[in-house]
Each structure stands twice: as structure tokens, then as C-alpha cells.
Amino acid sequence: MTAIAISGTGLYTPPYSISNEELVASFNAYVKRYNASHATEIAAGKRPALAESSTEFVVKASGIKSRFVVEKDHILDPDVMCPRIPERANDQLSILAEMSVAAAKDALAQAGRKASDIDCVIVACSNLQRAYPAIAIEVQNALGCGGFGFDMNVACSSATFGMQAAADMIRAGNAHAALVVNPEICSGHLNFRDRDSHFIFGDVATASVLEPASSARGKHAWEIVSTKLKTQFSNNIRNNFGFLNRAAPEGAGKSDKLFVQEGRKVFKEVVPMVAELILQHLAEMKIEPSGIKRFWLHQANLGMNEFIARRVLGRDPSPAEAPVILDTYANTSSAGSVIAFHKYNDDLAAGDLGVICSFGAGYSAGSVIVKKIG
Question: Would residue 328 count as lying in a domain?
């Protein structure tokens, strides 16, 4: 069987950052206005008052301290509280494609490859800008890649699912080298007026180059030892927005068209599922958990990551064993584990093993065991 490698990764970080302090100030301004405008109903017990947020609450609930976004001013405006991203003409590069191209160029440079070396482009993310034409085909065209491209969505697990799809196609001879891109504008589907979730997401794009390990170049190459995927249906994380919902008049303005979740249920159900997936995967490959040098986890929530790593290792992980980037990037959906991998792998030695793992809505989870080549 052909050995496949991740030969390069790339990262695009948006130009704007929002601190917890800024976000909480905006949210609390909205809460004060809401409670004042509905004071009579609230006093009569006909409407509940909204509770203010705090930076301490956000950090305790998530471990997040800031996030990057593609547009800042309108998110922080208490009268708007969502990004305003101008539409582009059809002959212009879309914003998702633009982010993808930036991350892809970074990954190609790290892999020592040209766009013309790529003959498969997969855009794998939670938040696609449109139904068609596929963003991947637009990225393929903008970069000058050959072959084919397509979009896929497995929510926060899209990156690891995309890696397996790309690796399988290369092994089957349907592609020579693949580019898996994860552009995420999560701020566009986040309800910034919901105290329990207004702080969760950030925007970013990541990219990975996959090719036969025999042709991978440079010190950044990692062989994919094995991949394992799992899905299990759940409504506990959901977003009902889509072109059919948007066309229905009764759907306008409803909060279920944005991100909604039952956070406690998600924690209770997803953490053991993901830990078990990793343990099963390692057991199938006859690898002891102690043999894994690093876990690049999804970066959804600090507590979830720590709990999963603890269940897998049987002890508390060190910061080096399970690096965290969500404190500055927040939850970036499919891109989170790739950001962690991109930023924290250079220090490992040839032969070291690691696990890239993502998990999220669906439920879905993907585990990719990798071994450093050079």
C-alpha cells in the first residue's frame, strides 16, 4: 500500500482580533438596551431579563481569550452584532476562495510544491459560502491546479475527513497530490446575542498538502500511519440555515438559523466518544498511548481537550503533549486541529508519532495518526 504524507501545512489568519473584553462590552451593552426596552414586560414576569456576560465567565467556560475575524466593527456594534461582509461580483474571487488561496500558498511553499503539482483540491469546512459552483473548483482555478476539486462538509471534523478522502484517492491512483483546504468564517453563523455561545468561534483558513511519502520533501513531512473516522447522529449541535430555510418566510430571524448547541450534552456525549475513538485507533495499530508524543486536538473547548487527553493517556497531559491555540484563535471549527499541528510540530524528531483529531456536529470525529519523516 502506498504510504501517504502530509508534506506541508499553511495558515491564513484574518487581520482583525476581538478580545474577550471587547466582546463582553458589546454584549453587555446589548443586554442593557434589551432589558431597558422590555422593562415593563420583565417587571410583569411576561419576559425574562437577559443576564450580562463577563470575561471571567468566558475563560472559565471555554479557555478562550480572543478570536480573529474577517470583519470586526459590526460584530461589536450592539445594534448589529454580526459581521457585514460585502457581496462580491461573480467575476471576483469569493472571500472563502481568497482565504483558501492564501493558506494554500503557505502550505505549498512549506511542501516545496507548485500549484501545478496538485491535481486534487478539496475544500472541507463547516460554513460554505454557496451551494455551487464548488469553492474548491474556484480555488483550483485561482491557483492553477490541474485535475479536479470538490467541496465537503462534516462540520468540525471536515479537515480530518478531507485528509482521509485525499489519502484514499492518492492511494487509489485517482490523484498524484492533493490540497485539502479549510476556510472557516464561523463568525457568520454565530449568535452574538446568546450569552452561552457568543464567545465561541473565530475565523481562519488552513491548508494541507498530501502526496506519496516517497516524494515528500523537507523537514515538515509527516507520514499518515492510519486514519479512522466515526459519525453518530445527534441534534445537540445544529445550524438550520440553508437556501430552503431562507426561502421560507417563517424562518426569517429565527435563532435556529444560527449556531445552536446543548453544551452540557455535547460535553457528556462527545468527550467519551472521541477518547474511545482514539484509543480504538491506537489499539488497532498496536500503538500504546504513551507512544504518542503529541495530540493536536480540535480546539473546541479547553475542558474538552484536557478531558479527552486525560482519558487517552490515563493522566493529565503536559502543555507540550496537547498544545492549545484556542486561547487566541477560539474555536475555528474544522481548522482548529490543523492550526495546532501547523504551529506545534517542528520540535519533534524523525520517527515521533502524533495524533491529529477533530470532532463536532453530527456527531463526527476523525483521528489521523502521523509519523514524522524528516
Answer: yes
Q: Which of 120, 156, 186, 357 is catalytic?
A: 156
Show the cell assigned to 364.
463526527
Cα of 50 vs its chain's centroid, Å: 30
Instruction: Give the separation between CA 37 and CA 40, rounded to whole angstroms.
Output: 8
Tell me if 10 is assigned to some domain: no
Q: Which residue segment(s) compose the domain that 293 sits in? A: 222-372
The DSSP-derived string for 277-337 is HHHHHHHHTT--GGGEEEEE---S-HHHHHHHHHHHHTSPPPTTTS---HHHH-B-GGGHH
Within 8 A by CB and 6+ apart from 322, the residues are: 294, 295, 297, 305, 306, 309
**DSSP secondary structure of 137-204:** HHHHHHHT--SEEEEE-BTBTHHHHHHHHHHHHHHTTS-SSEEEEEEEEGGGG--TT-TTTTTSB-EE
Amino acid at 180: V
Q: What is the pLDDT of residues 258-290, one digit of tens each?
A: 777 777 787 788 888 899 999 999 999 999 999
Q: How far apart are CA 48 and CA 288, in angstroms?
A: 52
Count of domains forming the chain: 1
| pTM to 2 decimal places | 0.93
92, 99, 183 from 173: Cα distances, Å: 34, 29, 27
For residues 329, 306, 354, 344, the Cα torsion angle rounded to the nearest 10 degrees is: 30
In the residue annotation, 357 being an active-site residue is answered as no
CATH number of the domain within which 345 lies: 3.40.47.10
Instruction: Give CA–CA dist 53/28, Å, rounded.
Output: 6
Length, in residues, of the chain: 374
- The owner of cell 457568543 is 198
User: Is residue 1 assigned to a domain?
Assistant: no
Q: Consecutive 10-residue runs of the chain (374 residues): their mean pLDDT? A: 94 98 98 97 96 96 96 97 94 97 98 97 94 95 98 96 98 97 95 94 98 89 96 88 62 65 78 91 97 95 90 94 96 97 96 96 93 90
Q: Are 234 and 269 in contact (CB under 8 A)?
A: yes
3-state secondary structure of 265: helix
Q: Is residue 94 part of a domain?
A: no
